[in-house]
Amino acid sequence: QIGLAMHNYHSTHSLFPPGAIAPGASCDAVTGPAPGRILNHTAYQMILPYLEQTALYNSYNFSLPSGKSNYAGSGCTGTTPTTDQLAVVTSPVSVFLCPSDPGPTKGDENYAFSQGNGAQRTSYGLVTDRYDGNWTTTWAGTSDPNKGMWGPNGSPRIRDLTDGTSNVMCMVETPLRKKKAEDWNGPYWNAYTYVYWINIPGRGINRIYADPSFPGVNRNGAGSEHEGGAHVLLADGSVRFLSENVDQFSVLNALTSIGGGEIIGAF
């Protein structure tokens, strides 16, 4: 259903939705640093009308940030969070959750974007080849042919996926139980945070964090509660189950890039 929504968005706008719009962290996201403002909107919000969530989409104010965008160590103490978006970011959307994942489905910290308890998370993350939290970066401005399908402030058309839509990963499962005991580890469908992207290169699938007291995967890692692997959504809209034992370099890294020209065998 999410894959179909992505393609319906492309049919309407002639490109896929941007992974994140004006992402970043600021003590006051409403004013933000010049010459623009931090908004932290996401691709998930953009496809809501194509998931029978038009009412939720219409209730979201895209001229305002999703939240305050505070983060640990930022020194942003004593600020008042933006509340205009609270009804949206705390609304559950079942299609963004894997039925086999017991949760927790809600964040319980102000950490991510200072909307308080109840911000909704997702079991499906946008695949990227790098972490980029700079709100001034654009997807189109990154010329590396090995870059992934998603990035900030821009997005590809189908014709930009020169490796072919059946050879590019769009999304991948990521378990709600991450390496930390806290529940705020993302991704959140309703706001960009620093735990937003799922970074496949170097992290693999179901790769358990080294500390045995935290049994979950890395906060930016792929994985699932299914035994032996995780589901991936390819850019052609199809869903495949990918083994956790699949080769990192010849398959995972190759599926992440949109134009690397790799020859990918069976997976």
Search tags:
267 residues, little secondary structure, five-stranded mixed sheet, 5 helices, 7 strands, 13% helix
Short account of what is shown:
This protein has five helices and seven strands, in the order αββαααβββββα. The protein is largely without helices or strands.
Provide a descriptive summary of the structure in words.
The chain has 5 helices and 7 strands; from the N terminus they run αββαααβββββα. It has 267 residues and is mostly loops. The model is unreliable at 71-81 (pLDDT under 50). It has one domain (1-71, 107-266). The strands form 2 sheets. It has a 5-stranded mixed sheet with strand order 5-3-4-6-7, with no helix packed on it. It has a two-stranded antiparallel sheet with strand order 1-2. Helix content is 13%, strand content 10%.
List the helices and strands and how they pair.
Elements: H1 2-13, E1 20-21, E2 41-42, H2 43-46, H3 54-58, H4 86-89, E3 124-128, E4 169-173, E5 198-199, E6 229-234, E7 239-243, H5 248-256
Parallel strand pairs: 3-5
Antiparallel strand pairs: 1-2, 3-4, 4-6, 6-7
The stretches of 5 or more residues where confidence is low (pLDDT under 50) are: 71-81
Protein structure class: little secondary structure
Total number of distinct structural domains: 1
Mean pLDDT: 78
**Relative helix content:** 10-25%
Beta-strand segment tally: 7
Which sequence of strands runs across the widest sheet?
A: 5-3-4-6-7
- What is the 3D shape? globular
Alpha plus pi helix count? 5
Biggest sheet record: 5 strands, mixed
Gap between N and C termini: 22 Å
Instruction: Give the SSE order as H and E letters.
Output: HEEHHHEEEEEH
Radius of gyration: 17 Å
The fraction of residues assigned to DSSP E strands is 5-15%
